[in-house]
Amino acid sequence: MSPAFSTMRNVELSTIYYIETQIDNNWTGIEVVKSFLSAYDKTLPVVCIRLINALTDRLEVGSTTLDNEYGFMIDIFGTSDGQRIDLADFIVDKLKDGWVYYTHAHTVGDNTSLARTSDGRISVKLFTDNSRVDFGTDEIENPDRFRHRIGVNVRKS
């Protein structure tokens, strides 16, 4: 196996994997993507999960140990207002209890598949947003007409 990915990349991949698995197990016809622009190329409904920042602080004064917090933005592109609300509520409910942190690596000679090994947990530190994206008019075209945004800061333990 190739060397494992960085912690930040593992947090991103673990989070996407968790949300995608939860959606696949409970919903039908919803595509999960990690690129905002690719959400516009897909048939709705779409959930886009993006790692948007990493906040780093020292664990304590004088320590060289860092305490990292990762910010995610989850955009829901629904087909109706009801679906938007239901998906947002579902995702928040699944995130609140945390999920498995995996280290990821490519198998030697195969860059198309990932090997996962559990190595801790990811927990939500703060929900920073959970709101409809309001463009100020109901005349907005799909896919933005029924869009919702969930912001969350997480920590690996």
Description:
This protein has 157 residues and is of the alpha+beta class. The model has no long low-confidence stretch (mean pLDDT 91). It has one domain (7-68, 78-156). The longest helix has 20 residues, at 7-26. Strand 2 and strand 3 form a beta hairpin. It is 25% helix and 45% strand. The chain has three helices and six strands; from the N terminus they run H-E-H-E-E-H-E-E-E. The chain is globular and about 55 Å long. It has helices spanning 7-26, 36-39, 81-95, and strands at 31-33, 46-58, 66-77, 99-107, 110-132, 147-156. The protein has a six-stranded mixed beta sheet.
Task: List the keywords.
157 residues; alpha+beta; six-stranded mixed β-sheet; 3 helices
